[in-house]
Amino acid sequence: MGLPNPQPHFSANDYLAWEREQTEKSEYFRGEVFAMGGASRRHVTATLNLAADLMDALDGTPCRVYMADMKLRVQEGEAYFYPDVLVTCDAADHRADQCMSAPTLIVEVLSPSTAAFDRGEKFATYRRIPALQEFVLVDPERRSIECYRRTDNDLWQLRDIVPETPLTLESLQVEIPWERIFRNLD
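Given the sequence above, the corresponding structure tokens read:
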């Protein structure tokens, strides 16, 4: 998430109407609008690596992969975000033009300026999405991966993915080799 725009308090509907007129993307969180900054080469590379591997792995399934330009609506959190990668298996999402609302997986690739928000308030907001089963944080600078998985009793369990260990996404029955996520970063 970028820096707040000097905008008055917006309702979600005000934000949606305002953003349609903008040339740059902005996220909306609890009445505030945040400009999206440009991403680093490492950030973009890790995002593309994950999305490409997910697309290959999910080919022929009812699940689809979307990247940074697809907006996610989190109604309970009064938020609209642009996750780095999201996967939805929901038929209504597949018909949506602008906003997804029922992702199974969300991946955020960390940047130094957004890491605290991604781990904190954003993840707390994402946890309110009933369909969400897994949330992954990828740090391209530290080459680390954290996978949070919703348990049967609606708690979230963290699994650190150690180097050379594949990222196993149980909700999608997909396994991505660790080295593929971080390929071409240097």
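The longest strand covers residues 103-109. Try to locate this feature in the token string yourself.
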